[in-house]
Amino acid sequence: MDPILQKFKLVFLEEASGLLDQLEKDLLDLENSPEDKDLIESAFRAMHTIKGVSGMYGFDYVSEFTHNLESLYQAIRDKVMRFDKKIFDITFLSVDHIRKLLNDEQLQVSENQVNQNSIMADIKAILEAVPAIRPGSVVNEENSGSKINPSTWHILIRANEQIYFRGISITSLFHDLASLGHFEISRLDHLSNEGIDTWSIILYSSACENDIREVFMFIEDDCTITRLTNRNLFEDAMPLSMDNEQSIIEFVEYQERRDTPGTTQNQTPCEKQNGKAENGKKQVKRISVDSAKLDHLMYLVSELITLNSQFNLTTSDSKYEKIWPYTERLDNLSKQFRNNALDIRLVPLSESILRFKRLIRDLSRQLDKDVELITEGIDTEVDKGTIDQLNDPLMHIIRNCIDHGIELPHLRKQKGKPESGTIKISASNSGNFVIIRIEDDGSGIDLEKIQKKAVEKGIIKATDKPSRNELLEMIFMPGFSTAQNLTEVSGRGVGMDVVKRKIMELRGEVIVDTETGVGTSFTLKLQQSIAIIDTLLFKVQDTFFTVPISDINICMQIPSEEIEKRKHTCTIPFENQLIPFVDVRNQFHLGGTYSEITKAIILRNNDRQLALLTDTIIGGHQAVLKPLGNLFRDQKCIGAASQLGDGKLAFMMDTNELFLTAESL
């Protein structure tokens, strides 16, 4: 395969995976709303695009398989059959099978061969009970703006390397084309040469030329669109095989020679109604970028922010007053550059939740349980590198919640619970940390059973009295399982140790909480691999600290005598109430004493408030936060560090830990 086609093929594989994700999401929503026409159309277009484009890159088995699946959904679109459990199950199996075929394009794996024949046989058996679907009937006439006679069109695309480098998604173009009508794609080897691949598309649609050209707007210089006839060539005797492609190309070239600029000979009724064809603008929604390039971009941004801090520090003297307006402008541009780069690097957690909805659906059915997924705050953005490594830990936790936590429907009913159990996934940001919480409303963790199993395995002695936290930590030990029976889901003692190991690799921690009969929660506290946020810089003795600006309520001054008066309760008066304070000097054993008037930073976390005592409040600081090494692992109140303009370090306070520390005082 030539290099250009290989690059497009790699892009196709990535985008086909995205189309399958979208198809899976549509199917999960369709189970709840099987009459939703928009969802049906979206699912159909995803199948049609995969079928058409896969054939371009030699995935003939994917194309053949998806064609049969597409016929099933054509019958649903035509309302000659309705969704039932069997159709959903077959479609989900088909999605999984197509994923495997993308890694086995020649269908060489025996398991895939068996699945290919089995699923296609099931699909054909269902289709035999409904009227035959005509190949050319895939025309979305309901979405047409006016009543136009359907026509057969020919689109010739000459794809070169520049299309790839411009970030244009060929797959997305065909996804849009699928909404216009039925099309078939073939590669013209005899017209392709080094650096250019030529593709021929036959489209039967009721859309006007404007609509078709809008799909190919960003490659209009590399494609030719011609209306061949008002007949449906898919139903005519004229074969549209590779042997006949040359005659189509000759017809196109003849049309190009015959037509002159300004001619209206080939205008469709839509164009005649609207006069001169107008091309509307269409924005590219997404492009794919190598994550290594994004990592390098983030490194450059962090270096720019650090250099900007050094520049501001160097020019703070009054003798540089003339350039202060320029330093301020540079500072603003740096912040905009920072925010834009972070937006590119971060992805919402919701993009990973889809696979867990499917996991919950399949696993709950396998175990004869009814489980509902509830999400909250999943628009929280997480670093792409982090979210890729989160999939395994989240999968194992959810499997554990469904298998060990949530009871069977009849047992839940006996306990006075709803027969349907729930798993809730929530997420939020806290400074340089992302907090992800997974909780179920099941039976909870039996601590006595854990202790008994630990004694059996020789982990502890029968006379030992481990604490609650020590018992909960045991579920993360390799090979530790309290399952009574060995099943496909659990009982092998693997899974939760993977969670602990993966989260530790991400420099995070897992906190487990449980209540018998109520449920269990797993809280993942993860550091972002790199973050650039606005903070307040302050100093205690000779050490610099920062806290996120977003967590600060107000800064104030307090007489030292007020602090001494309530030192035994660690509180200070604020807004007609007493709030706890954390003495940063004592917390980190920095030595020295506060002045007669002590500076205090009032932090707010929901309804809670907390005061930080400090020597000097310096001001705003755009902090490039980087994780700390193992040396600071025991310092729970410090989450990261930032380099100042003069090379010194400022330690980022973990405000969540500060509130926990204040509560324990």
Question: In terms of topology, how is this protein built?
Answer:
Blueprint: H1 3-32, H2 37-56, H3 60-77, H4 85-102, H5 110-127, E1 151-160, H6 161-165, H7 170-178, E2 181-187, E3 196-205, H8 209-215, E4 223-229, H9 245-258, H10 269-274, H11 291-314, H12 324-345, E5 346-348, H13 350-366, E6 371-376, E7 381-383, H14 384-405, H15 409-414, E8 421-430, E9 433-440, H16 447-456, H17 468-473, H18 496-505, E10 509-515, E11 519-527, E12 531-540, E13 543-548, E14 552-559, H19 560-565, E15 571-574, E16 577-583, H20 584-587, E17 597-605, E18 608-614, E19 616-625, E20 638-643, E21 649-653, H21 655-664
Parallel strand pairs: 6-8, 13-21, 16-18
Antiparallel strand pairs: 1-3, 1-4, 2-3, 5-7, 8-9, 9-11, 10-11, 12-13, 12-19, 14-17, 15-16, 17-18, 20-21
Helix pairs in contact: 1-2, 1-4, 1-13, 2-3, 2-7, 3-4, 3-5, 4-5, 11-12, 13-14, 14-18
Brief sketch in words of this structure:
The chain has 21 helices and 21 strands. By secondary structure, the chain is an alpha+beta fold. The chain is globular.
Q: What keyword list fits this structure?
A:
665 residues; alpha+beta; Four Helix Bundle (Hemerythrin (Met), subunit A); Alpha-Beta Plaits; 5 domains; 21 helices; 21 strands; globular
Describe the structure.
With 665 residues, the protein is of the alpha+beta class. The chain has five domains: 3-133, Four Helix Bundle (Hemerythrin (Met), subunit A) (Up-down Bundle), CATH 1.20.120.160; 142-257, ACT-like. Chain A, domain 2 (Alpha-Beta Plaits, 2-Layer Sandwich); 291-347; 349-527, Histidine kinase-like ATPase, C-terminal domain (Heat Shock Protein 90, 2-Layer Sandwich), CATH 3.30.565.10; 531-664, SH3 Domains (SH3 type barrels), CATH 2.30.30.40. 42% of the residues lie in helices and 23% in strands. The strands form five sheets. Strands 6-8-9-11-10 form a five-stranded mixed beta sheet. Strand 2 and strand 3 form a beta hairpin. Helix 2 packs antiparallel against helix 3 (60-77), helix 2 packs across helix 7 (170-178) and helix 13 packs parallel to helix 14. The longest helix is centred in the N-terminal third of the chain and has 30 residues, at 3-32. The radius of gyration is 31 Å and the shape is globular.
